[in-house]
Amino acid sequence: MVPGFSELDSIPSWFVVLPDCDRPSAAGTDNALRDRAELTVPHPSGRPWLMGRWGEHDMACGQAGANKLAVLGEFDVTAGRLAEAAAHVRTVADVDALARRLTGSFHLIASVDGRVRAQGSVTGFRRLFRADIDGATVASDRADVLALLGGTGLDEQRLALHLLDPPVLHPLTYGPVWRDVGFVAPDSYLVLDADGRSRQVRWWFPPEPELPLAEGAAALRHALTTAVGVRTGGRELVSSDLSGLDSTSLCCLAARDGPQVIACTAASPDPLDDDVQWAQFTAAAIGRIEHHIIPADEMPLIYHGLLDMNEPLDELLDEPCGGIADYARWLTIADRAADHGSRLHLTGFGGDETLGCATSHLRTLLRRRPVTALLQLRGFAAKYGWPRGQMLRQLCDGTPYGRWLNGAADRLTTPPPPDTAPALDWGPTPRLAPWVTPDAADAVRELIRSEAANARPLGPRGLHDDLVGIRDSARPVRQISRLAARIGLTLSAPYYDDRVLEAALAVRREEKRPPWGYKPLIQEAMRGVVPGRTLGRQVKSGGTCDLDAALRRNRAELLALFEDSRLGRTGLIDAAALRKLCTGPLRQHPYDLHDALYQAVACEIWLRTWERAATHPKAGAMP
Description:
Elements: E1 14-17, H1 27-36, E2 39-42, E3 48-53, E4 59-64, E5 67-75, H2 79-87, H3 96-101, E6 104-112, E7 115-119, E8 129-133, E9 136-140, H4 143-150, H5 156-160, E10 182-183, E11 188-192, E12 198-202, H6 213-232, E13 237-241, H7 245-257, E14 260-266, H8 275-286, E15 289-294, H9 327-339, E16 344-346, H10 351-355, H11 361-368, H12 370-384, H13 388-396, H14 401-410, H15 438-452, H16 461-485, E17 490-492, H17 498-505, H18 509-512, H19 520-525, H20 532-535, H21 545-553, H22 555-561, H23 566-570, H24 575-581, H25 594-615
Parallel strand pairs: 13-14, 13-16, 14-15, 16-17
Antiparallel strand pairs: 1-3, 1-9, 2-3, 4-5, 5-6, 6-7, 7-11, 8-9, 8-10, 11-12
Helix pairs in contact: 6-17, 11-12, 14-15
């Protein structure tokens, strides 16, 4: 699959960052951008700096002399404040101060006396990609845009990484599925020099987890209040999910002093799911929330509508979206919110990963506070049924990250450990489902082993696991937000804001996730905001019964999706084997294959969408 310039017309929102240099060989690329970009922002020199398509209120830009600063996304900084900040900048490194104090979720781009600095968000929700095109490095918020400009095609070996279950393996799974396109690490910024060359510079380091719970909760409350305020300021109406404690907190913050809030709760056929009851109580207690319940029989099941290749599944995404099998459910909620006049919808996505922490932090805690660590180890072992022998072996295992990656390559096609296995390692070792072909498995092994020699973790095991979890959970939400934008709704996820992440990471991990209690950090942070009875909620249903019902209801659609499989054509899966396994309960296999099926569906739909775009290109730009 080799894309062409015309497919840019099918991508409604994107931007490209250009260096401040003359590139005589770049006439074709520059002309393609000029023909298809609706907006252009020049460098102070007058050369093109930012080109693309974005909403009227999605950018702020300020200039002082030879310096220019821009933010794109959700923010509350004004052009005037950016101009003031630009006046104090002498080098691209000086932009660090601004990057550390801005609130919201955004890309930050600077043109400083002929050099360019570009970065996304630390959480990975706002990503940045790079490619060398026409003799110079350019950047974009979308990997596919760079592939279109460079005329490169699909990298099938990297696409195979998206079949991993779970699709989480630092740093491999961050990489684009397009040849000759790279990514900028979330904790780094990209520098484009005046001669067209580039380099990455790490600027962000996580805070030390030293704050006691009470002090950390106050900081988190401030960060979340500010994050919600960035979104709701100046609006008369917003909407919000109202289900678990994470979305409930955002909903209650929005309702305190701000606009009218439309809250949406999806009912479930799961008899153990009590989201509706808790939401009804919360909405009544707050009093300023207009609550809407979507009945269970009006909520599509997972895998619904997978053969509908019209809107929204004709939306071009720059990588497969792991949540696409569930898209009809999320968009049902978004549609209800939009029907009631909302143009911005708050979601609790990212709350679990940001507010919690990996149990692997206990390895570090054992050296620093052994008594506390041993008490918590006993608690987790009792809670999750960890066998004592396995727990001790993991605690004594000092395998460095690179060697652990090599081990992950060796275990790709072996059965995963039981659910009772301790979670004290570098993270879960992903597997490949039985329908992945041997050639595809070998390709994934080759990629992992090629990275293992130079791969470095993001920190000690607990911190590494936390950051990997946050960044990988942001990937599908980033894509789902593009689907919501099709109906004119901004899907806003404040838990992926950098300032919120920093506040959560600064809290002592043993207090943030003890083996007893439920999300103590957000409970403490939201006292006086969320009704006390709601804060006392101790459990939330995982909705697992929906998976089996969805497979039964939508089995015919799933089988049809893989009847002439594009993944099968590429040699990545044995489509007949997948279809055969889908004719029975996936839980009866030696291990649960539902998550692996999610990934296969994501890749299949992604390939079909790009194939359709190449065959039936759209005319025109953003609707």
